[in-house]
From TrEMBL:
It comes from the Eukaryota. The keyword Coiled coil applies. It holds the Pfam family DUF4461. Residues 201-510 form the DUF4461 domain. Keywords: Coiled coil. The keyword rRNA-binding does not apply. Residues 22-125 form the DUF4460 domain. GO terms for cellular component: mitochondrion. The lineage of its organism: Eukaryota, Metazoa, Ecdysozoa, Arthropoda, Hexapoda. Residues 214-241 form a coiled coil. This is T-cell activation inhibitor, mitochondrial.
Length: 511
């Protein structure tokens, strides 16, 4: 956030009047909309061309609208009142291919903060980051009656376009909105019902209704799991692979399809897959080579794209080999700070990560060419850990104490961020070091006490939340009506029984 003072030239202004504007930066906009981009990005709809095209076109219009607000403080005449976006109905495997059409409103105002808030609210995404932003204010140092009158007229004009507040009675629709199809209405009804379930459902009551379904699905998929495991071993042996990992969130049946496709590719192009020998192959959300050196194949790609990557794998490996040098260079610039990887983050490509490291190192060297690090800094920062992410990444301290920075962060902004957050990072780091041992102990106890087949958690569930959840489970125990024996349990933010029988419960479940 920065302050910009400029001479007012609007038709409502008094000549010579100075206005004080609070401006929101492009990096703040990117951070605020990060969960929105993750939900609607066209790359997530590779197998669904219609939804992909709609989201791609809408994102272009949204980008132009935001750019106009940030750089020119004006609304483009071509900007529509709403933009359509497709969002997955849920992350459950059985809902893959099912989408909800959401109409995202674009406020007719130059208040960027309000625009961001309405976008997130339309998609039921958290607005905590936006809520913490200071509200935009225009305050003249010299007032006049003509200015006040004109300014009030302008404000009334903006407010006439304001988004109406949602209510539980119309499920988020305006009373005069008659063009919504049954698809949108069904989506709003689904949201309303889910909200009521979360408010009233207790874990014990929910388990009693769902445990039979979960047990039946778990047993039904067991035969398929055994078939997939045999197929995995056969493909590993055929291609000389070290390991095959499935990391895309879809069900085990989809894993079998991926293995069959890889097996067929090897038959059609004998010898072309020799580059996979002694490698770990991962079916994931992108095609490339990960920071760990694993060969990643996007499950939505055609076989030709897989083949092209495997044929050019040496090129990706060359970038992988340069990463230690790039990380060392950045560490040296920042007084031996440790360069780490985020503990809860999606896999990244080695080629892109190398570019991110170069950008942030160059920005710091440019800063040091003009200034020096603050005197309050320790002479050695090796006890801290820095994580460099993509251009759209956040600027924050993670729950584990890591300092997360986007690759495009200017040197001055990065130095200022580190100066103000080193103490916070150290405290969170120490807290995480204590909590991870407690979490492991509680994890083992829950597995034994409830006779679970497996116990996992989503990346969004931090150690303190996991500890709270597991402690509550153990406090109530099997005698409290929690029937979990012979089930796969995942701690997340919602209730669900997946197609393979996995039971998902929110970490903050009610007794």
């Amino acid at each position: 956030m920065y302050i910009c003072i400029k001479k007012c030239t609007s038709r409502y202004s008094v000549p010579g009047t100075l206005l004080l504007h609070r401006m929101i930066s492009s990096s703040e906009v990117a951070t605020a909309l990060r969960p929105f981009y993750f939900a609607v990005h066209p790359d997530l709809f590779g197998r669904y061309p219609q939804q992909r095209q709609v989201n791609e076109d809408s994102l272009k219009l949204l980008s132009a609208h935001l750019e106009s607000l940030l750089s020119q403080k004006r609304i483009l005449p071509s900007t529509p009142n709403t933009l359509p976006f497709y969002i997955r109905a849920s992350n459950a495997p059985q809902d893959r291919g099912t989408f909800n059409l959401v109409k995202v409103p674009l406020e007719r105002t130059i208040d960027t903060r309000l625009v961001l808030k309405r976008i997130l609210e339309a998609c039921n995404l958290p607005t905590e980051y936006v809520d913490k932003m200071p509200a935009a204010k225009n305050k003249p140092t010299t007032r006049s009656s003509s200015y006040e009158e004109g300014f009030q007229q302008q404000q009334q004009h903006h407010q006439s376009f304001y988004y109406r507040k949602r209510s539980e009675y119309n499920f988020g629709k305006d009373e005069d909105d008659q063009d919504d199809g049954p698809f949108e209405k069904e989506f709003d009804l689904f949201q309303f019902r889910m909200k009521k379930v979360r408010e009233n459902e207790t874990l014990r009551k929910w388990l009693r209704k769902q445990v039979v379904t979960a047990t039946v699905r778990t047993k039904a998929v067991q035969e398929l799991r055994e078939e997939v495991e045999k197929l995995r071993e056969d493909v590993k042996k055929q291609l000389g692979l070290r390991e095959i990992i499935y990391d895309c969130g879809w069900n085990v049946e989809h894993f079998r399809g991926c293995l069959k496709s890889l097996e067929k590719l090897a038959e059609l192009h004998p010898g072309a897959l020799d580059g996979l020998r002694d490698r770990t192959l991962v079916f994931a959300a992108f095609t490339g080579v990960s920071l760990e050196g694993h060969v990643m194949l996007f499950t939505g790609d055609v076989q030709r794209n897989w083949l092209e990557l495997i044929k050019t794998i040496d090129k990706h490996d060359s970038y992988l080999g340069k990463l230690p040098a790039y990380e060392y260079a950045l560490s040296q610039v920042l007084r031996n700070i440790r360069i780490g990887r985020r503990k809860f983050m999606p896999k990244a490509q080695a080629m892109a990560y190398a570019s991110h490291l170069r950008k942030i190192t160059t920005a710091l060297l440019d800063y040091l060419g003009k200034s020096k690090f603050p005197k309050t800094w320790p002479t050695d920062l090796s006890q801290f850990e820095l994580v460099v992410e993509s251009e759209a990444g956040p600027l924050m301290v993670s729950p584990t104490g890591q300092l997360i920075v986007p690759a495009t962060c200017p040197g001055s902004l990065l130095v200022d961020f580190l100066t103000n957050h080193l103490a916070e990072a150290l405290e969170k780091q120490r807290s995480y070091d204590r909590q991870k041992h407690i979490e492991r102990d509680l994890h083992a106890r829950c597995l034994a006490q409830f006779r679970l087949l497996s116990l996992t958690k989503d990346d969004s569930v931090t150690p303190d939340r996991m500890i709270e959840c597991l402690e509550k489970l153990l406090a109530h125990g099997a005698g409290g009506g929690l029937e979990l024996a012979d089930l796969n349990l995942t701690i997340t933010t919602y209730y669900s029984v997946l197609s393979d029988g996995t039971v998902c419960i929110p970490w903050d479940w009610k007794q």
